[in-house]
Amino acid sequence: MLSQVYCSGSQPFRQRLLPWVQSTALSRSRATDRVQPSAIRHVRSWSNIPFITVPLSRTHGKSFAHRSELKHAKRIVVKLGSAVVTRGDECGLALGRLASIVEQVSVLQNQGREMMLVTSGAVAFGKQRLRHEILLSQSVRQALHSGQNQLKEMAIPVLEARACAAAGQSGLMALYEAMFTQYSICAAQILVTNLDFHDEQKRRNLNGTLHELLRMNIVPIVNTNDAVVPPAEPNSDLQGVNVISVKDNDSLAARLAVEMKTDLLIVLSDVEGLFDSPPGSDDAKLIDIFYPGDQQSVTFGTKSRVGMGGMEAKVKAALWALQGGTSVVIANGTHPKVSGHVITDIVEGKKVGTFFSEVKPAGPTVEQQGEMARSGGRMLATLEPEQRAEIIHHLADLLTDQRDEILLANKKDLEEAEGRLAAPLLKRLSLSTSKLNSLAIGLRQIAASSQDSVGRVLRRTRIAKNLELEQVAVPIGVLLVIFESRPDCLPQVAALAIASGNGLLLKGGKEATHSNRILHLLAQEALSIHGVKEAIQLVNTREEVEDLCRLDKMIDLIIPRGSSQLVRDIQKAAKGIPVMGHSEGICHMYVDSEASVDKVTRLVRDSKCEYPAACNALETLLIHRDLLRTPLFDQIIDMLRVEQVKIHAGPKFASYLTFSPSEVKSLRTEYGDLELCIEVVDSVQEAIDHIHKYGSSHTDVIVTENEKTAEFFLQHVDSACVFWNASTRFSDGYRFGLGAEVGISTSRIHARGPVGLEGLLTTKWLLRGQDHVVSDFSEHGSLKYLHENLPVPQRNTN
């Protein structure tokens, strides 16, 4: 075993090391001692990778069961495969990737974790160096003998791997030293062979050296001593826990991880993870979680372009480490879009690569649920409209028949949320008999409207004789609806999905777990009457919302129902999947100079105070300048004071007052509470300009008795919902007569405003012909285009 310590900076090593030793003055024996949150060192702010501060406390002995637990990993081994470290030409190192990996390792090290690297690259680095030396030597020799400036083409001999490793080790380590220096971290090189693990004395020495380096906050960089390592032998010793030969860096990383009782082994290669068939084949699917025993159903491809181990060797090494109590993730360390954060993403529990786990979930994975929703949704779409309506009617009946069970489950959620959720969120979480009755009424409205939805002919065209084209309404596919603190959302969305023939994945907030569970069971009971139970799936696994948003091959539309922050997060996380919704509900009401005194206070009170947490609640009140210091204005202020609404003054409004309320910090604020911004405008046009500048295109209202002014406002305000003398709270699918809504959309494509049944449909084209070919319609062809509009058949909805 060879070991060498490299330290950065100009301070003497002992002087620089002392503060770290003092700050971590505890034994690093993994079996007993752990760093508590209070002992985590101050984190530097030199990196753009987000820091996480978590309790790094865990008893080793059993691997993590779920990805979400990886954030608690204390001791981590990162194995860098040859394909990750080397360039595409296999001669030299991929410096950009290495720099990114070093940065991520440094971030985790400075969070209080103990990082170790198992790295390839010495052979590639040495090959580059030896090729350069050979070329230089040959060119000098040739120039001396020929005396000519033009050199003949020189052949480079085949370079022996051990010689390349010997020439490359020092350069590789010097490179790592220079990179870790940028983050004030020390690194130590350790070269090992198989004997270092199988000779008991050498194994104890290696173990002691590594523990001492970790105790001193030094990152060990481990590699097989390829300058002396014997040729690879067949894989014959990966069956038991106690024996594994170090024949490549995969087996080395596994042996090291178990020997050092690490929490997590990250194996980076040039593929995304483990696939159920060779990557690149048509049916290959990335395996999210791999369980012992599953290897029998996997077909392994060839090994990577460089290195000694293929995916089969990685899986065997990973399973060996898993048996020894170390969690393992195999992921891609070469992809330019993810390599810059792949290690930190894995440690944060994000769905990256293949996670090896000994604990199989009780239910299906979210990928399996997505496939079931797709298959069930297609079956649902083939049902007759009357059958889909029957399912929804049955669900409406279940909401009232099973009322006591639903309210009991909801009571459990409320009790568990008490003291953890704010009052507005508790109100959203709460169910009542009246709410359930209203839900049942809304569902029956949806059932009635579903009679004329899927399959409805929108237009017919006769293209030519015996060639007719139809455009028909069809489901979008699979919807993912993510909702917070709103269990009443589940039956509404389920009914709309059933009516529109869409498969549905539901992800509710954990604060409504009990309520969501029983409501989902009722939805599946209703679906069962026509054999389509699996069309609606409730995601109960530990999948993060960000991971769900990456399932672009399974999900066709994401609909968030919750806070503006939730919507923004989903819009940011969604990769290639459309998101329907609004990030903010900044609703305005403009009180015109010709507004009715009797109407204004009623409309303002209802819009602001009836349900201030709703996205369609009033947030900014615009008042015409002529109404200041009038009885109407005084009535508005008195009413708001009685309702205990906190007023924020806009800049112009504040300028009119000697003692004004607190001036608003931003005119683009959604309060979601009993708070309101008041601003003054000089005209209806200025009100429209203000709405366009500070609004969110959700719902905006004018209060006036002047019809011409009202129509001008209605036509010129560019929002999803624009009202005249009506509360902003009417912006709702149920109140619009849609039965229910999946949300309110402020986007300009597809659906806008409250999105009901129609917003969950798209179209397809059906062309019926008789041996028609395009060449018949050419200049010298026998047929001519007619393009005649045909009457659209009316479906009987009675």
Automatic annotation (TrEMBL):
Catalytic reaction list: L-glutamate 5-semialdehyde + phosphate + NADP(+) = L-glutamyl 5-phosphate + NADPH + H(+); L-glutamate + ATP = L-glutamyl 5-phosphate + ADP
CDD domains (alphabetical): AAK_P5CS_ProBA, ALDH_F18-19_ProA-GPR
Source organism per UniProt: Zalophus californianus
UniProt xrefs under Gene3D superfamilies: Acetylglutamate kinase-like, Aldehyde Dehydrogenase, Chain A, domain 1, Aldehyde Dehydrogenase, Chain A, domain 2
Subcellular location: Mitochondrion matrix
InterPro entries in the record: AceGlu_kinase-like_sf (IPR036393), Ald_DH/histidinol_DH (IPR016161), Ald_DH_C (IPR016163), Ald_DH_N (IPR016162), Aldehyde_DH_dom (IPR015590), Asp/Glu/Uridylate_kinase (IPR001048), G-glutamylP_reductase_CS (IPR020593), G5K_ProBA (IPR041744)
Domain Aldehyde dehydrogenase: 366-628
Annotated metabolic or biological route of this protein: Amino-acid biosynthesis; L-proline biosynthesis; L-glutamate 5-semialdehyde from L-glutamate: step 1/2; Amino-acid biosynthesis; L-proline biosynthesis; L-glutamate 5-semialdehyde from L-glutamate: step 2/2
EC number(s) stated in the UniProt entry for this protein: 2.7.2.11, 1.2.1.41
Domain Aspartate/glutamate/uridylate kinase: 74-332
GO cellular component: mitochondrial matrix
One of the record's GO molecular function terms: glutamate-5-semialdehyde dehydrogenase activity
Sequence similarity: In the C-terminal section; belongs to the gamma-glutamyl phosphate reductase family. In the N-terminal section; belongs to the glutamate 5-kinase family.
GO biological process: L-proline biosynthetic process
Keywords from the UniProt entry: Amino-acid biosynthesis, ATP-binding, Kinase, Mitochondrion, Multifunctional enzyme, NADP, Nucleotide-binding, Oxidoreductase, Proline biosynthesis, Transferase
The name this protein goes by in its record: Delta-1-pyrroline-5-carboxylate synthase
Reported function: Bifunctional enzyme that converts glutamate to glutamate 5-semialdehyde, an intermediate in the biosynthesis of proline, ornithine and arginine.
Quaternary context: Can form homodimers/multimers.
